[in-house]
């Protein structure tokens, strides 16, 4: 399954200066009755003012703020924002702009798509993770307690604005979290892209801009071929079957330090690469190179036997499962993913043992 392409035919993802021109044109053409900007407390402080300074609108603009963090990506938060929209007079000609990271764009898209059976919305991702993953592709939704993305819809935003100047406000761990999704795109689509990403110490900020666009193009082209995730779009879940379970487990256990999404996915990718060797004949040499690169970027987390059992149990709730079977995305080679792979628990335990032994 070869999925690497260098150009995109998607028209709704716009970059940097052109993005604001396109947004202002979109607002003027549609004559929205009101505009709502959803932020969390971080993007309210760091991103809202420069964003609003670029917006030209005749309609009233109202700001709705939510609490930051994965723990707030919930139906309870949605309920509060739906109520705020109603109290502020939102109607079906309103526009919602989601200005924030993956939690804001995921949850904001779900809220907009369901409020009054759907109002228009625009995503303005402010983190690397949301630029290359969450804000692009049309997946919107919320968690059920600690279980990731159990409720949601697939419907794209009207526009996605990529303004990489927002990344200047981002802490280093958040940058690394987004980088994990870019690395995943390299593994499933393009070995040359993977190699360039793992040589980050040789890259400039201009290089990073180009790599972000390339990562978005990889995802866009996959989504355009399979918008409802019946086939090739499943490849975007590489590292996520175990990664989401690890993220959920660390989120719900007070004795564990919470992991950022990309940190958990990095572990999941190492485990999935080991499984790829065992199930798909992936190169052991490449597995060790991938593991070394990911450990050098993300370090390692401690996983006890009890942790492993509970993480495996959580995988039963993965939304990619069918007929009670847990489905993995594995690799035959870099750029050649294999979807719907079923793996016995014995091999999953061996993958954990491999991870624990990594230096």
How is this structure best summarized?
One of its GO terms (molecular function) is 3-dehydroquinate synthase activity. With 359 residues, the protein is of the alpha/beta class. It is built from 14 helices and ten strands.
Outline the structure in words.
The chain is α/β, with parallel strands linked by helices and 359 residues long. It folds into two domains: 1-225, Rossmann fold (3-Layer(aba) Sandwich), CATH 3.40.50; 238-357, Dehydroquinate synthase-like - alpha domain (Dehydroquinate synthase-like, alpha domain). Helix content is 49%, strand content 17%. It is built from 14 helices and ten strands. It has helices at residues 16-30, 41-46, 48-52, 75-87, 102-114, 128-134, 172-189, 191-197, 205-225, 240-252, 261-280, 284-298, 305-314, 345-357; strands spanning 13-15, 34-40, 60-66, 95-100, 120-125, 139-144, 147-154, 159-162, 327-333, 336-342. Strands 1-8-5-4-2-3 form a six-stranded parallel sheet, sandwiched between helices. A two-stranded antiparallel ribbon has the order 6-7. It has a two-stranded antiparallel sheet with strand order 9-10. 45% of the residues are buried.
**What is the count of β-strands?**
10
- DSSP helix fraction: 40-55%
Domains (count): 2
What is the distance, rounded to the nearest whole angstrom, between the alpha carbons of the first and last residues?
A: 32 Å
Largest sheet: 6 strands, parallel
Which H/E pattern describes the elements? Answer: EHEHHEHEHEHEEEHHHHHHHEEH
The helix-and-strand class reads: alpha/beta
Radius of gyration, in Å, reads 20 Å
Average residue pLDDT? 92
Low-pLDDT segments? none
What's the arrangement of strands in the largest beta sheet?
A: 1-8-5-4-2-3
In terms of DSSP E residues, the strand content is 15-25%
CATH class category name of the largest domain: Alpha Beta
Quickly give the CATH architecture of the largest domain: 3-Layer(aba) Sandwich
Would you give the CATH topology of the largest domain? Rossmann fold
Cofactor: NAD(+); Co(2+); Zn(2+)
GO molecular function: 3-dehydroquinate synthase activity; metal ion binding; nucleotide binding
Domain 3-dehydroquinate synthase C-terminal: 178-321
InterPro entries: Dehydroquinate_synthase, DHQ_synth_AroB, DHQ_synth_fam, DHQS/DOIS_N, DHQS_C
